[in-house]
Amino acid sequence: MSLHFASFQAPPPYSPVRTLSAMERGFLSHSLFAQILFSMSLELGPGIDSARLSSAFNALRAAHRVLRVGIVDDSLRGLMFVDSERSLDVQFHDLPDDTSWPEAVSRDLSRWDRFDGERLFRATVLRGSAADHVVFTFNHAIADGRSALVLMNDFVQLLDGQEVLGCPTLPDVRSYVTDDAVPPADRTAPALPDFVRPAKVKTDGDAPVSVAVLELDATTTKRLVDLARAHGTTVQGVLAACAVCATADTRHEPLRLSSPVDVRGPLDAPTDIPGVFLALALNAIDQDDGEDFWALAARSVSTIAELKDRSAVHRLVYALETIVPAHADLVIAQEVLAPMTLDVMISNLGRVSLAGTSARTPVRAVWGPALNTQIAANDVIGVTTQGGQIRFVHTGSGARPHLLQAMHDVLIEQLGNLC
What we know:
Radius of gyration: 21 Å
Distance between the termini: 57 Å
CATH superfamily: Nonribosomal peptide synthetase, condensation domain
CATH class: Alpha Beta
Number of domains: 1
Strand content: 15-25%
Oligomer: single chain
């Protein structure tokens, strides 16, 4: 049967896998009026055979259950993952000389205008004269940034002719939450901060999504990491401080920041499983009078540290399960996902290691995530560190078109103009 949303209320026959967790339900519900999509790009040397790429994608689908599911709204049990026989959506495009791969990604993220319960992942191979980019694009209901890295790592190994274990199940964040971790009295939803306000979904009159990229060389990357540690903060904290300083002249209130946090660690879940295992650290921050840059950087990561606590994560999962309806609900989705629509999100996936990299499969870089929240005046900075270099992807909605370059200028000034 077709799994388009129009048929969500239809009765079986479909083969159920499991119901969606609260965060997955929130992303799915939000997708009914504005899909939340993100892309990761794998930069390879040019000229890899198309048949070899297609074969690797087919093997990846066979190895990972998450690429073989659709979503329906079951009349009795609510939103459910179900088995899908739909083949993997892989497209090949030759990039014109006057088109960059970020431009191609921005167009792709902009044209997913209709939700399809069976089209939750796609891959696009962008052929260029100097490099090929394999772009993995996900509906956020099935995966987070860490999931994308797991799948990309397995893809590289398969492309290199190796075997992978994959993940034959569909990991569920709820299975890692234990009753004894959170007393019943604490299983209530925390109040959102006052600075979290309803967001405006983009319309045809708003600026289209744009994607810009930037990378630091190995020397500057090491300098950044070393100075962050020396000042008792992290790369995430430094980037948050850069965003605060870069936007200071255009704001009349604190900058509202969100940071996705991988919660596999606090839940004692394996680090190499796909799924939606994240929480959002929220902050409204400005530079105090007389406060230097590095003190600001250290202060900006306090809310992230709170989500590293085991009991806090368990409490959050319990709370979300109590407030997010079992069935698709647009109103609740807007409330649950409001923290994603702050001024700037910084999604730092940290150090990336691809085990299958070889001369036969020349991996040059990993870029992302490029996240389109479909929200007006929302900017996302995706960060990865691979091969000793840190790389940035700015997905913008037109409000701050030069944000990434402005953050870079602040950063280089603080690092001592090494570039």
